[in-house]
Amino acid sequence: MQFVEAHGAKIPAIGLGTWELSGHSCARIVEQAIRLGYRHIDTAQVYYNERDVGEGIRNSHIRRSEMFVATKVWTTHFAPNDLLRSTKESLHKMRLSEVDLLMLHWPNAHVPLNETLGALAHARELGMTRHIGVSNFTVALLKQAVALCPEPLVCNQVEYHPFLGQSNLLAACAELGIAMVAYSPIAKGTARQSEVLTRIGAAHGKSPSQVCLRWLVQQNVPAIPRTSRIERLSQNIDVFDFVLSDDEMREIFALGSPEGRLVHSVTEPDWD
Ligand SMILES: NC(=O)c1ccc[n+]([C@@H]2O[C@H](COP(=O)([O-])OP(=O)(O)OC[C@H]3O[C@@H](n4cnc5c(N)ncnc54)[C@H](OP(=O)(O)O)[C@@H]3O)[C@@H](O)[C@H]2O)c1
Question: Where is this site: Lowers pKa of active site Tyr (predicted)?
Answer without folding.
Answer: 72
